[in-house]
Write a structure and sequence with these properties.
335 residues, alpha/beta, 12 helices, disordered N terminus, binds uridine-5'-diphosphate, binds magnesium ion
Length: 335
């Protein structure tokens, strides 16, 4: 097992870091810690729990400060605004220390007890141990159906294979974490990235539990954005398919032109086809606009990536010294 590079020379390393993104989860933190800490004490020599406060507007950060005062193994990073769960996870991975990291939600939908199994599999040599939803009946039927459709679609057009039912709840060995840290893309689709990095992987089946408190932070529009980010970051099919359609259409148009030429030579001009002309102009204009739109969507993404803005900005560190900042991959690269 390799150790994270970040934090080497920084005194004693915890064996494991648990990364938990939190967005207005004030009421869940205590309940989570109550179940999580005993599990970690049982299965690893030392650990830290790193909460990434994703711009909460309730008293989540106050609760995290209090938790840190009571137990110094509990740490928090507070982002300057809500950057979204995917970026919050990236921030957590950047600041994780130890030989492995576990990513989990704060709402107890991910049973902490499963971490014992994760650690056991990791000790067997797996570097990417992911929880696989067997049952997610706690989500409503529409969301379940759309999720299922998304996985089907991704399976047929995506360039990366996504294991069905695998989410963010997982254990990653330090090597896998180091790999994820090198990926600084903004339109982040973590599930795709975990699959893309590869490494020896294994699934651990589990049933999603009901949310302890509060409501899901993911509206259908947020989920749609995430799905589009996933598809467009991991598939170039929408770009390619229009070239094929364009080619076929042009060939058909050439054939048609030949047909009309011969017919005109043989029989002369008949009634000008006003209707068919309008129909075909509209049809092709539609296709052109659609393909332009798809190209535009990709260009929009290129635009976002070339700006190379920092992925997130940290407003406050609780129990983390600023040394960690000097060890961030971006700083290492520029050094
Ligand atoms: N979350 C976050 N930023 C966001 C939305 C969610 O950090 O913008 C966190 C949230 O606090 C929780 C986890 O991501 O710990 C999963 O969110 P949620 O339970 O709302 O998602 P769902 O279970 O509905 O997929
Ligand atoms: Mg949840």
């Amino acid at each position: 097992m390799t150790k994270f590079e970040a934090g080497a020379g920084e005194g004693r390393q915890p064996q494991l870091t648990v990364i938990t993104p939190v967005f207005n989860e004030s009421r869940n933190i205590e309940a989570l810690l109550k179940r999580l800490v005993p599990v970690l004490e049982r299965c690893v020599a030392s650990f830290q729990i790193l909460f990434v406060d994703d711009g909460s507007t309730d008293d989540t950060l106050d609760r995290l400060r209090a938790a840190h005062c009571a137990d110094s193994r509990i740490l928090a990073l507070s982002l300057s605004r809500n950057f979204g769960k995917e970026v919050a996870i990236a921030a957590g991975l950047d600041h994780a220390r130890g030989a492995a990291a576990v990513i989990m939600d704060a709402d107890l939908q991910h049973p902490p007890e499963l971490i014992e199994t994760f650690v056991a599999r990791w000790r067997e040599g797996y570097k990417n141990v992911y929880a696989q939803r067997v049952d997610h009946a706690v989500y409503n039927p529409l969301r379940r159906l759309l999720t299922q459709r998304f996985y089907k679609l991704f399976g047929s057009v995506g360039d990366t294979r996504l294991p069905e039912g695998a989410g963010d709840f997982r254990l990653l060995d330090a090597r896998a974490v180091a790999a994820l840290r090198t990926m600084r893309e903004h339109a982040r689709f973590s599930k795709g990235l975990y699959a893309w990095i590869g490494f020896k992987s294994v699934s651990v089946p589990f049933d999603v539990e009901a949310r302890a408190h509060g409501e899901s932070k993911f509206s259908y529009s947020k989920l749609t954005h995430l799905a589009l980010d996933g598809l467009m970051s991991f598939s170039t099919l929408p770009l390619k398919v229009w070239s094929y359609i364009g080619l076929t259409t042009s060939l058909l148009a050439l054939t048609l032109a030949g047909f009309y030429l011969i017919r005109t030579l043989m029989f002369g001009v008949d009634v000008p086809g006003y209707a068919s002309l309008i129909v075909s102009i509209t049809f092709f204009a539609g296709i052109q606009l659609l393909s332009l739109g798809i190209i535009g969507a990709y260009i929009g993404r290129i635009f976002a990536e070339v700006k190379r803005r920092p992925l997130y900005l940290i407003e406050e560190r609780v129990g983390l010294d600023s040394l960690a900042a000097d060890e961030s991959p971006a700083r290492q690269r520029s050094a």
